[in-house]
TrEMBL record:
PANTHER family: UPF0237 PROTEIN MJ1558. This is ACT domain-containing protein. The lineage of its organism: Bacteria, Bacillati, Actinomycetota, Actinomycetes, Streptosporangiales. Gene3D superfamilies: 3.30.70.260. InterPro entries: ACT-like_dom_sf (IPR045865), ACT_dom (IPR002912), UPF0237/GcvR_regulator (IPR050990). Residues 5-76, 93-166 form the ACT domain.
């Protein structure tokens, strides 16, 4: 069974997610992994779907005048029953609150990447003049978390933002 990456972008309206996922089900596709959100009044979906599917046929079936759809065959990079961080990593939640400005994500992700940190999910919102970022981060077990937190705090200070970084509490998930 193949795996396809599907992206959908369009003006948000009631029923758009139902239409897209219904079309996928009709052609025998099984959604393995997905994220869906609203971005400035647009619905944005990224889905990994399994099934013996032709990417061109998927685009045709999912296409609508108000949607931009891409579909590509891909190789799986992980088993979908994994618990996320796995035995080699530790999960954290990072939050940023501060004024909006260019370079926030770049500065923070560079600090995380320098220690082998991997952002596995991220959401940002601009509420008035307040910029909010929430990210799920996996770190290798051997990272000096205290030193990483000091570097993140320094970046936060340079951005006039407050950064928090805490371990994921599995009981809450």
């Amino acid at each position: 069974m193949g795996l396809s990456a599907v992206t959908v972008l369009g003006v948000d309206r009631p029923g758009v997610i139902a239409a897209v996922t219904g079309s996928l089900a009709e052609c025998g596709a099984n959604i393995q992994d997905s994220t869906m959100t609203l971005l400035g009044g647009h619905v944005a979906m990224m889905l990994l779907v399994s099934g013996d599917l032709d990417p061109a046929e998927l685009r045709k079936r999912l296409g609508a005048p108000d949607l931009v759809v891409t579909a590509s065959a891909i190789d799986a990079r992980r088993h979908f029953c994994d618990d996320g961080g796995g035995p080699e990593g530790v999960g954290y939640v990072l939050t940023v609150h501060g004024p909006d400005r260019p370079g926030i994500i770049s500065a923070i992700s560079a600090v995380l990447a320098a220690d082998g940190g991997n952002i596995t999910g991220m959401s940002t919102r601009l509420t008035g003049r307040l910029y909010v970022l929430i990210a799920d981060v996996d770190l290798p077990k051997d990272v000096d978390v205290a030193a990483l937190m000091r570097r993140l705090a320094a970046v936060g200070a340079s951005l006039d933002s407050q950064i928090t970084f805490r371990p994921v509490e599995p009981d809450l998930l």
